[in-house]
Amino acid sequence: MPVPEVKDNFAGSVNRITLGATKDEGGTRSSIVTIGGAKNVVYGGCPEDAGETPVIAMDVLDSKPQDWPDALAEPYEDVLGSPADWAKKCVDEFGAELICIKFDAIHPDKGDKDADHAVKVTEEVLKAVGVPLVLWGCGNDEKDNQVMPKVSGAAKGEKCLIGTVQEDNYKSLTAIALADGHFLITAAPLDINIAKQVNILASDMGFLLERMVTFQSTGALGYGIEYAYSIQERQRLAALSGDKMMAMPVICDVGYESWRAKEAKAEDSPGWGAVTDRGPMWEAATATCLLQAGADIIRMRHPRAVAAVKKFIAEVWKNTG
Amino acid sequence: MILIAERINGMFTDVKRAIAEKDKKVIQELANRQTQAGAACLDVNVGTAAADQEGTMQWLIESIQETCSTPLCLDSQKPDVIAAGLKVVNTDNGVLLNSTPLNKKSDEDVFDKYIEMAEHAGPKANLIALTMDKNGVPQDTDNRVAIAAEIVSKAIEKGFDPQRLFIDPIVLPVKVPNAQVQPCNILAAMEQIQYLADPAPHMTVGLSNLSQGTSERSLINRVFLAMAMSRGLDSAIADVFDTDLVNVVATTEMLMNKQIYSDSFLKVYASTNR
């Protein structure tokens, strides 16, 4: 019996955005990345409805991570202390399409480093790699408000993706990202209503909806992935139904969340298989799952997980675009 | 919700005067203000404002299109007036033909004429069809549904996608003798009309007609609108300047889970409904 071809047509689509500015556009990037544009759910509709192929942003921390398990730190052993070398390695050896600088060390509890440090890291990474950057604060509102505007200024005109802004802390970063020509990450704590509200608030400040990317918060496999999945899916369906306040591409933080899972890093559990494989597998499984809910950018950490997910993306999106 | 804004109609004195004086500005301002207020489509009706209905329809359309690209809803019971309008309307924006009954004593083939005009105007042309035939407007539920069913099957027969149909079950003023049974009859009809095709045909009503001559026009309009939306109504020709009414649309859509709730849901509705 033939399988019937089920096709849904939707009125709306996910916004298409291009990150990174080349020399012609006043920046220094040697490559740019276009995401979004989907006119259907993943696997739905005809191939051209799938929009742009999702991309991987590899995490680079602004200073040597203190709490990374050996299995994760090992591939970066020689570069962990130098964000520029680390970023270069991610791009040259592991094929990162974007680099996400995560400014952990500016957090009051994780080093409390100042804006000069963050600016220096930004400048070094900009010089070391030609891919577009994602610039991600530490999550402490006060410190992010002090430091991230300076980071934004250091990358002015490079069309970076900068964030995050939340419902109760959005004004300063939104204003500076607007002035510096960046794209903005609007974040919500696994709450679709707040997600929409943040987008509205940022848009009220004059930030174009078409220059935003949403971060719904990510749950790893076994740690709330179903919530992240269904919220992303709901956002995609809202975008397809024409809700302009929800039509942004989506970014996920898979690397950090996956490696928090004890299953990814516990060394004293022989029944679970080799720890060197478990972490990358956990990360890859989390990423592939969220890609199917409609993620456009995946933040990742382990090169083996990145390779596996790249293969998956190439297979699923092979006939598209 | 596809809100079709009702104000560009020769029955209103400002429009009537603008037509008489060929004052484009009045019309253009109405078009843009209604769009800002959340209109997805603008009704254009010459009314009784001019003897030359065809020429006036064209003048209205051309005036609007100079400053506004919102889809237009060409409103006339005379096919010739619609045809004149279609000659100048930008069909790329989308256009709605308003409206045809199933048939008329004076013109058995009126429905076919409108379908042909809609087909001829391209894939973005849709058609409002009234649940009315040569016997007039049915007063009960069953006949409304029967006519709607005939409309849908006739459209399918002609190769016209039922999703391009807007079925109008005809709202009558509630303040006329014995008319208070009508709102419930219409709601009952809507419940059935939405199952006449899959996906369902659109449904629309000339909402303001309901409250004609009453003392609480806006309240009556918006309460009925919420009731009808819960029965599948997805379009209405209405006064989009009535903020309370647009708020009811936004709230009803949110409660029906068609819009994701946010604390600013009322504020953004008008700007995101287009």
> Sheet with the most strands of chain A?
8 strands, parallel
Distance between the termini of chain B: 9 Å
Order of helices and strands of chain A: EEEHHEHEHEHEHEHEHHHEH
- SSE run of chain B: EHHEHEHEHEHEHEHEHH
CATH class of the largest domain in chain B: Alpha Beta
Strand order of the largest sheet of chain A: 8-7-6-5-4-3-10-9
Q: Stretches of chain B where pLDDT falls below 50 for ≥5 residues?
A: none
Q: How would you characterize the largest beta sheet of chain B?
A: 8 strands, parallel
Number of contiguous helices of chain B: 10
The percent range for strand residues of chain A is: 5-15%
CATH architecture of the largest domain in chain B: Alpha-Beta Barrel
* Total beta strands of chain B: 8
| CATH C-level of chain A | Alpha Beta
How would you write the strand order of the largest sheet of chain B?
A: 7-6-5-4-3-2-1-8
Class derived from helix and strand content of chain A: alpha/beta
The percent range for helix content of chain B is 40-55%
Q: Give me the count of strands of chain A.
A: 10
The chain-level mean pLDDT of chain B equals: 95
CATH topology of the largest domain in chain B: TIM Barrel
How would you describe what is shown here?
- The complex is a heterodimer of chains A (321) and B (274).
- Chain A is α/β, with parallel strands linked by helices.
- Chain A has a single domain (17-316), classed as TIM Barrel (Alpha-Beta Barrel).
- In chain A, 39% of the residues lie in helices and 14% in strands.
- An 8-stranded parallel beta sheet of chain A has the order 8-7-6-5-4-3-10-9.
- In chain A, helix 2 packs parallel to helix 3 (115-128) and helix 3 (115-128) crosses helix 4 (141-154).
- Chain B has 274 residues and is of the alpha/beta class.
- Helices cover 44% and strands 12% of the residues of chain B.
- In chain B, strands 7-6-5-4-3-2-1-8 form an 8-stranded parallel beta sheet.
- In chain B, strand 6, helix 7 and strand 7 form a beta-alpha-beta unit.
- Classes of the chains: A alpha/beta (321), B alpha/beta (274).
